[in-house]
Write a structure and sequence with these properties.
With 418 residues, the chain is an alpha+beta fold. The chain is built from 7 helices and 23 strands.
Length: 418
Amino acid sequence: MSLDNNQLLRFTTAGSVDDGKSTLIGRLLYDSKSIFEDQLEAVENTSRKKGHDGVDLALFTDGLRDERAQGITIDVAYRYFTTPRRKFIIADTPGHIQYTRNMVTGASTANAAIILIDARHGVIEQTKRHAFIASLLQIPHVIVCVNKMDLVDFSPAVFEKIVGEFEEFASKMLIMDIRFIPISALLGDNVVNRSVNMDWYADAPLLHTLETMHISSDINKVDMRFPVQSILRPQRDHFRDFRGYAGRIAGGVIRVGDNVTVMPSGFKSKVKSIQAPAGNLEEAFAPMSISVTLDDDIDISRGDMIVRENNNPSATQDLEVMLCWLHNKSARPRTKYTIRHTTNEQKAMIREIIYKIDINTLGRITDDNEIGMNDICKAKIRTTKPLMVDPYRVNRSTGSVILIDESTNETVAAGMIV
């Protein structure tokens, strides 16, 4: 089979400590033959030094020295692999409660989330937290892998009990597509190859599920959003007769001849041409990077947004967002931050903390406005100039923001517009 289908699927893994996330990813890479020989040799040598009989699959992902020393995953580790059907980027995120920010970071661009559950322990508080974050980030597909089935004698009753527990909890959240797979990452059951020990499970193993999952409709293809990143000016030699607007399409489809509006100015024009690295196009769609020219010479700057006529985002200075605090310095209401939204950058301040989420119970805390690292809260933010936004559930690109500390230029929070 050729690599004609080079569609990229990003997925994140989450689970509690020792649920086997790193082993699962190692098994995926190992059994799909996606590991270079020198990597395999290095891991085999390390496994022998540690006294393991076979290959320690977790070493394929636990590449940080601190992780190996402590035996835990402490950061987001990204891995890339490809099969004849699809390309993949994996974000291996930690399971510890103090690393909520890492899971938010790893999951923010994911098409799918793999949530691991230890078959011996079932649905625990951290499982619920991972499911809540997947729901909060509007990850379209969730695959619940019930791992270590070998330690419960591959029991279908144990699997069905965990499925029931998870479904009952997930019914309170917005998760569109949930699938359940019983696996043993250590032995390889139902990861790449179908399990002979669980012939009662009739559906596909994990890799086949990831390869065939329909993700084309995950991106908003209705509302055209084109944030302008840079202006290609006519005075440059190879753009002598050309004034273009370059950027990455954040939603919808843009076609030559479309009537468009430039926000926030409100000027109207028509799409004259669309250019991509491969040449001129008649149409382009999210998330392609392109440049466009318009029939009219309009004053357009970085941060402006080109949209289809009569299909506008909200232009507002007052945002309600779900904020995940990423920094060890606490949030300071009434303090000025820089807010970044698509290609737009403005000054902003947190006007009010509406409530905080109790990560363990998922309840709302209304009497505590202290927001520290890994906290998730609902807040009101005021910007100095309007941003062109959509709700996060409608468009993850135009519905997300980050806050930056002006003095250090560090990212302190990620937000989803509600």
